[in-house]
Amino acid sequence: MGADYPFYGLQAKGLNGKDEPLREVATMAKHYIDAIRRVQAQGPYHLGGWSAGGLIAFEMAQQLMEMGESVNLVLLDSIYPARFPQESGISHEARLREILFGIESAELPENYEPAHTLRAIWDEAAAGYDAKPYPGKITLVLTESFAQRKEIYMARLKQRIAEKNFRRSAKLVRMLEGLDQLNPANWVDLAEGGFEMVPTSGDHHSFLYRENCQHVAQCIMRCIDSAD
């Protein structure tokens, strides 16, 4: 992006294996706001977040605008923060069996257990987040068509089972159950100041690879220029 567009990254608390991870989206957002204000005390701020980071960037923008700051927000392939009521008496394991095998009584591998990791902590934080309408504009950079994602998520879930790697199963189950509600295009429902969706090449990970990221960088620079 060049020297005219200084870029700062923020690391989740707890990745160093020493600090206790934060467990609420609003708390994570405040932690990051404190960090960026040590570099730049006042706005305007240009915020972006990829994947789950988009939800934290969204909450950061909410908090900053409540403080009277000017914010430009870009979400990179971030799903919509839908909330789903839990059916009483139906466990995660039962839902996983039903999605994978079509029957609730199907057997899971003996070593199956939900993850107790930073990923699991994040999933709980996101599930408990209540997204409010946002007074500013939201720009969403989106990869492959959302219609393809059910097939992609199902393939990934089956792969995790085949590999006996269950760390991400809870998140994939939830995505498959509520795919329409999670559609990134639904961000328009929260964007009171305008909404723009910008398509880009690649999938959720490869669009950040060197061969694709130049287009993403151009999208971000254009958003910054249009806000100035």
Please provide a written account of the structure.
It is built from 8 helices and 4 strands. It has helices at 25-39, 52-66, 92-101, 118-127, 149-162, 169-177, 179-182, 210-227, and strands at residues 45-50, 71-76, 138-142, 195-199. Helix 1 crosses helix 2 (52-66), helix 3 (92-101) packs across helix 6 and helix 5 (149-162) packs antiparallel against helix 6.
Q: How many independent structural domains?
A: 1
**In this structure, how is the largest beta sheet organized?**
4 strands, parallel
Radius of gyration: 19 Å
- Element-by-element helix/strand order: HEHEHHEHHHEH
Name the CATH superfamily classification: Alpha/Beta hydrolase fold, catalytic domain
Please indicate the percent range of residues in DSSP E strands (runs of 2 or more).
Answer: 5-15%
**Uncertain ranges:** 85-90, 111-116
Number of strands: 4
Biggest sheet strand order reads 1-2-3-4
| Helical fraction | 40-55%
| CATH architecture classification name | 3-Layer(aba) Sandwich
From the spread of the alpha carbons, the general shape counts as globular
Q: Per CATH, what is the topology?
A: Rossmann fold
Overall residue-averaged pLDDT value: 79
Structural class: alpha/beta
List the total number of helices. 8
CATH class: Alpha Beta
Instruction: Name the assembly state.
Output: single chain
Q: How far apart, in Å, are the first and last alpha carbons?
A: 16 Å
